[in-house]
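Troubleshooting log. The previous structure file for this entry was overwritten by mistake, so regenerating from the original sequence record. Sequence copied from the archived sheet and checked twice against the printout by T.R.
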Amino acid sequence: MAYSKNTYTTIHINKAPHTQWYVQFPIEALNQAARDLKPNEFKLYLMLSENKDGYLAKVGPASFAEKMGATGSDSFKNALYGLVSKGYCVR
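Regenerated output below.
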């Protein structure tokens, strides 16, 4: 299965100020995302949330498939479109 090259994007996340949490956003936000998002959208949401605010991340179909086990040639594109259209991500 061939994937296009990854692209770089800057991650901007509003995280809670507490630094001891493993997941650094309110559990209500995680629960809402689990209800709102399709499976691959939720996987991408979790993948992007691992990064700190302002971090330049390597993101794309190849890293999404490798890290999150997403399958299908359009899974990254569709997941990103879903996050953008539902307001979880901006371009």
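The beta strands are 7-10, 56-59. Archived copy saved in two places this time.
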